[in-house]
Amino acid sequence: MDQNHTKELLKQNWNLLLTSFESLSKSVEKCSSIGIKSEYSFEEMESIDSLTSKFARISDIYTQRIIRGVWALLREPYVPFIDLMNKAEKTEIIVSSESMLQIRDLRNQVAHEYLPEALKDLMQEVIKKYPYLKENINQTKYFLKQRNWL
Fold first, then answer.
1. CATH annotation of 3-146
2. How far is CA 127 from CA 6, 63, 71, 87, 148, in A?
3. Radius of gyration over alpha carbons of the chain, in Å?
4. For the chain, which has fewer Cβ within 10 Å, the N-terminal or C-terminal residue?
């Protein structure tokens, strides 16, 4: 794939990320106001499910499309996820590989969790990790703008 095509694809994925992130932000607000309870209504559970699903989807878009796209534009070879995050931190594509690994672990929990009761705990974790995801995305935006890739 040539560089111009990769840059165009990165821009498209970036726009998808921004739109999706805006929706995630609204879900974080909504679920933060729901708070911790012993019982949740059906509508509240739907909101929590939506939050966790959006978080998982956005973390995939960010790590698999954006960061891997940046890595390809840098003409670096494919590396496993943990190595990618460590190298992305060193090259200042992201702020923290540790927070991104935690986000990835949470994404995996969300993707494989089938018990409705577990959603409550996942909601709290998603709300807690949301600022770290935002911080890393903002760092990537800075990195991309410095290179005129956005």
1. 1.20.120
2. 32, 19, 28, 26, 32
3. 16
4. N
